[in-house]
Design a protein that fits this description.
The protein is mostly helical and 120 residues long. 47% of the residues lie in helices and 0% in strands.
Length: 120
């Protein structure tokens, strides 16, 4: 996503979507816990997290989110940077690179947002 480089590996740790996982990669993002909390919407092969895994995952998300919060303090952006970032996000949505949720992503891949009858 546009503008994430200064934050190192925090973007994938917090926002990585399931289709973007590499083989063997640990999925730590908010989308993983979203899928765990909405198992009825997940694929049939999904096994909900154990209580221990859910607790560890939650604790890591709290740590990573606090780290991001600390890093963004005092960061400022020019109007040009803001509009370019917004334009980049709109481009991602228009080309189906952004989904409402990780569990929805596979079903949405073949249909552009403007043809779905729902907003992204």
């Amino acid at each position: 996503m546009t503008g994430t480089a200064p934050f190192g590996d925090l973007d994938p740790k917090l926002d990585l979507r399931e289709p973007d996982l590499e083989k063997g990669q640990d999925w730590t993002a908010w989308h993983a816990i979203e899928k765990d909390l909405l198992p009825a919407e997940a694929d049939t092969s999904f096994e909900p997290f154990s209580a221990e895994k859910r607790a560890a995952h939650t604790q890591q998300l709290i740590i990573d989110t606090a780290t991001l919060h600390t890093k963004v303090q005092g960061v400022s952006f020019t109007l040009s940077q803001q509009t370019n970032a917004a334009s980049g996000l709109l481009d991602e949505v228009a080309t189906d690179q952004v989904w409402v949720s990780a569990s929805d992503a596979p079903a949405w891949l073949a249909t552009p947002p403007w043809q779905r009858g729902t907003s992204a």
